Amino acid sequence: MNTQWEVVIGLEIQTQLATKTKIFSGAATAYGAEPNTQACVISLGMPGVLPVLNEDAVRKAVIFGMAIEAEIAPYSVFARKNYFYPDLPKGYQISQFELPIVGKGFLDIEVEGETKRIGITRAHLEEDAGKSLHENFHGSTGIDLNRAGTPLLEIVSEPDMRSAKEAVAYMRKLHELVRYLGICDGNMQEGSFRCDANVSVRPKGQEEFGTRAEIKNINSFKFVEKAINHEVERQIEVIENGGKVVQETRLYDSDKNETRSMRSKEEANDYRYFPDPDLLPVFVSDELKAELKAALPELPEAKKLRFKTDYKLNDESATILTSSRDMADFFENVVKISGCESAICANWITGELSAALNRADLEITASPISAERFAGLVARIADDTISGKIGKQVFEFLWNGSESADEIIETQGLKQITDTGAIEAIIDTILAANEKQAEQYRGGNEKMFGFFVGQVMKAMQGKGNPAEINKILKAKLA
Amino acid sequence: MHNKTITELAQSLRAKEFSSVELTQHFLNRVKNHADLNAYITVTEELALQAAQAADARIATGNAELLTGIPMAHKDIFCTKDVKTTCGSKMLDNFIAPYNATVVEQLNAVGAVNLGKLNMDEFAMGSSNETSFYGAVKNPWNKNAVAGGSSGGSAAAVAAQLVVCATGTDTGGSIRQPAAFCGITGIKPTYGRVSRYGMIAYASSLDQGGSMARSAEDCALLLQAIAGFDAKDSTSVDAPVPDYCADLNKPLTGLKIGLPKEFFTADLNADMAATLEIAINEYKKLGAEVKEVSMPNLKYAIPAYYVIASAECSSNLSRFDGVRFGYRCENPADLNDLYTRSRGEAFGKEVKRRILMGTYALSAGYYDAYYLKAQQVRRLISDDFKNALNEVDVIFSPVTPTPAFNIGEKIANPIEMYLADIYTIAINLAGLPAMSIPAGFINGLPVGLQVIGNYFDEARLLNVAHAYQNVTDFHKQSPSL
Fold first, then answer.
1. Is B12 a catalytic residue?
2. Is it true that domain A420-477 has CATH number 1.10.10.410?
3. Can you list the domains of chain B with their CATH numbers?
4. What local confidence, expressed as pLDDT, does residue A438 receive?
5. Which of B128, B174, B215, B397 is catalytic?
């Protein structure tokens, strides 16, 4: 067998909308509360209760639709998806079926330098279910309905991705986008951004899609890639061994790095969708669209482009600095407050700060150094008060304390010595003590120059202005 | 005391002829004495007397409403905080709601005295009150006859004067049919006029709460308290509520009454036809004009109704799964066993029948042929009514094909039972308001006249009913118990 296989992937991504209250009730949506303390009579599906749509969820869905240049349905309908499960209190999930709020749109991704457009079929609003808790219940199952009724926007892509890498790029791009838009906190550990992948393979050149399997429960970028690659291998193996891929739902087990069958097509639920008679159709007016459009934040693509032109950043820096709205804001604040060249601001943020944040596993919003304090550091480096090397020391103080860069430079005595007289005096002493080396330099051993720079710096505890030192040394050794 | 209207009682309470506590005790005694009617599922004697005491205090301050201190009761479909709400089902025999239905809140707010919870067909599915887990309600006019359903407890309690007025709900005739069978007045308002919040859903797009009393005037007063927009019910309509008593005495001169030819056919029971003819003549004397109208799609109402109502109920009743509240079977072996036995053991036959029908109608491959088709028929029926109501002000029809049938007579034959709702069902499909008013007797059993009006035209319906009650006394007659 030497068939070349092509992989076809479509993703369904569920984003939890960052509303204060649930989609159909006034119960809070905050994560991590004691079980069932955020379950009101509506979350519990008590007899007689009725859903009332949270307008903020609609606004957030419309914002998303605009960001992917999708058609916003002027009229969309909530439907009931009927199935029994203990953490589904009403025995049905309120979702959208035939008429979703967001229609066809797209997202451009970049993989290995190539831009590719991924179609988005639709995005619809729905409520989340609760959680079944299997631990500490001595053979029984506990149910926590705090999450029941949390608003979700399910974003369904076209089967446009051709590799796990593309799938990850799409997922990352979408993750970045929803956070940019402020509609989802993107917290994957807390389940705010979840992914199901539809995966199939077909012989290269074949137009018809292969039979797909849906992989559920992939909740990190790393696992998406692994799960898809694993599933692709599994499907190819099945086919190459003369078997047939069956349409089914498979669960990804990240501990074992394998997918296993949950239910086949025959076992699949008949959800008996029908329009929810408790809710009116959702009408999105042109006024609302205009209002939200005007308030739409600058999107990642546009921001990156602007950073490249306005701040003359290279692609890599611009990418890092626009990876989140908070990061971009931080950068722009540092530039503004410090009044320095954008290049030096960018270097220090993408270098020292990013590395420290990564080490501490912190988001820019949780940075111990504010944009203001960081700008203080950059300004002192830019005006030669301190050298880059000393800058790193100051950075450590900034990271671990609350003083400003100026205070640190002052109290630690880190100010750069640019006084040529002081530098000359030290150089004279050093040259006098190392005549042999000076002779070697003058004899053509240029490496000796570095030796002297090092000696001078050492004597000056790193505070000497390197340019001045170089200049004076050169003159004296000539 | 129990013969007085709400207005008369309110005057007596203000004149201190008797207190609300005395009045309440009087009705509670009647409830006890006529317990054989099986009208109540729960009697909340203590709470009622407390509420009566509070009402007396409120009346003394001069800050009372007409309903303050008036004994009434709720159909057991309305959730009442801290008081059992069964919906007539074994499933909810142990259910105490943690909240009040909006209708209950509204009546509490005006100081009405709630005597308890009234019997009903299980989950409002039935036309005879025989599907109740708590047994059939007896018709006060003839205890062998059914009281009608599903608001049978409400109708019987009002007819037997075990309460001044009562709430009811109507999905396919559940206020109007028992009102007709028991000789009382009942109004099902326009869909969206009364909040459904806290009213346990049977078929959400058809369910509507309303009022049941001995006269149109009392119905108007009760409706006044419960009508209006509720932010907790997305399907309630945000339109102003008129003063339902303001037009009660408007003359009927020039009123255009439509008689659907599809309802007044040779098939109509002769006694019923004769009784209604007398009533219609009374209206002519009051200055009304009568004209024939045609609504050709009415014949599809019953099948369309049973598809839509069953489909919605199959989903609405999914929450009764033995997990969070209500009945749970003993020692379930696993999750599936918990579901199947809890639901199998606690739902009655009729409820199961409709859940099965509805599940079928919504299933993949059948949805278009049943549910979607039924919705299309529903639209056609609404259009029929709209066209007719462009020509006339109100439409008259029988409420039921016959007076109350006997207990046990139809329960084994669901189709026959369903067909008995032929005159009421189409109105729910269209969402229109309609009333049942006592129009005479056949063999000692009351029969009703149905008055159907345009959307949000409840005031006119009440006016039309009140004018008739000014010149007739069917509504004043009481059964000898």
1. no
2. yes
3. 6-252+434-476 (3.90.1300.10)
4. 85
5. B174
